[in-house]
């Protein structure tokens, strides 16, 4: 198959939408649709339902399917849908097959949740998923700094639908080496640590980056992408400076507030409730004002 269109779609701001909850704790479907439309109206052209900012691990299997369907329906004809899948192999395969049925074009495979991950076992895990959906593009989500680039090359040798990588090890030099060991031109490299890392990862080979901030301010993320595509790192760093504190708040305590801060910002804008599910937790009252101050500076 020709995956060139999907590769082009990945080289962009890859939005990771939040999953809004109603007062009773269920998914607020109307708000989910509205937030998705807001992203699309803001210029976003690729979305990842069931990503970490969408609280993937706190959702039930039925809820993950619902989020996939809601997103695919709203994005139809407007954006590419890259669905997050994971957990054990049968669960991940079933989610990938459901994504295909719902109209998604690609799946992002969350890193295996297991205390013992052999490098060859990493290949086996992703191969089982990729082979189950040969018509979908497959994007491994890599957070393991010990994984060798050659293993990704082996996976793609067996599964040509493995076309891109979300790389989220916080080390630009390590990323540059990994990409070249795997095949720099062979894959689309997506900086998986969002805007704060995007400039350094673009300098070493990335052509796209993920974003949770984009839920709040699509234009800000797209401004950074435009600058990076043009090779204007001065302009990109001006955007970086604007969003630095917001992203630092999300990264505090090993990213404990990654989702919490985004939802707090959306709540301040009147777009959704601030509710998150355990093990995340809403911000204490005294911290909420700082989030509101940050987004006020963006003139949303």
TrEMBL record:
Keyword annotations: Lyase
GO MF terms held by the record: 4-hydroxy-tetrahydrodipicolinate synthase activity
Binding site for pyruvate: 53
Classification via InterPro entries: Aldolase_TIM (IPR013785), DapA-like (IPR002220)
Keyword set includes Acyltransferase: no
Record: active site: 141 (proton donor/acceptor), 166 (schiff-base intermediate with substrate)
Family: Belongs to the DapA family.
The protein's name in its UniProt record: Dihydrodipicolinate synthase family protein
Organism: Streptomyces arboris
Organism ancestry: Bacteria, Bacillati, Actinomycetota, Actinomycetes, Kitasatosporales
């Amino acid at each position: 198959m020709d995956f060139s269109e999907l590769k082009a779609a990945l080289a962009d701001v890859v939005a990771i939408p939040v999953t809004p909850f109603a007062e009773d704790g269920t998914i607020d479907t109307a708000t989910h649709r509205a937030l998705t439309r807001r992203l699309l109206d803001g210029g976003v052209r690729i979305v990842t339902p069931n990503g970490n900012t969408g609280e993937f691990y706190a959702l039930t299997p039925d809820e993950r399917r619902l989020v996939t369907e809601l997103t695919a329906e709203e994005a139809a004809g407007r954006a590419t849908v890259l669905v997050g899948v994971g957990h054990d192999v049968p669960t991940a395969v079933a989610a990938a097959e459901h994504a295909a049925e719902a109209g998604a074009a690609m799946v992002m495979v969350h890193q295996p949740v297991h205390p013992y991950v052999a490098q060859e076992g990493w290949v086996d895990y992703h191969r089982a998923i990729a082979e189950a959906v040969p018509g979908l593009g497959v994007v491994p989500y890599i957070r393991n700094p010990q994984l060798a680039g050659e293993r990704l090359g082996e996976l793609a040798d067996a599964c040509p639908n493995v076309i891109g990588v979300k790389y989220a090890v916080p080390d630009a030099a390590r990323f540059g080496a990994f990409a070249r060991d795997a095949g720099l031109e062979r894959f689309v490299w997506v900086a998986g640590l969002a805007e704060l890392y995007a400039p350094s990862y673009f300098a070493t080979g990335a052509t796209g980056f993920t974003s949770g901030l984009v839920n709040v301010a699509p234009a800000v993320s797209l401004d950074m992408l435009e600058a990076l595509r043009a090779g204007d790192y001065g302009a990109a760093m001006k955007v970086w400076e604007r969003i630095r504190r917001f992203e630092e708040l999300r990264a505090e305590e090993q990213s404990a507030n990654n989702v919490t801060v985004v939802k707090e910002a959306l709540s301040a804008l009147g777009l959704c409730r601030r509710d998150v599910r355990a093990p995340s937790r809403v911000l204490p009252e005294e911290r909420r004002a700082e989030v509101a101050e940050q987004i006020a500076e963006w003139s949303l």
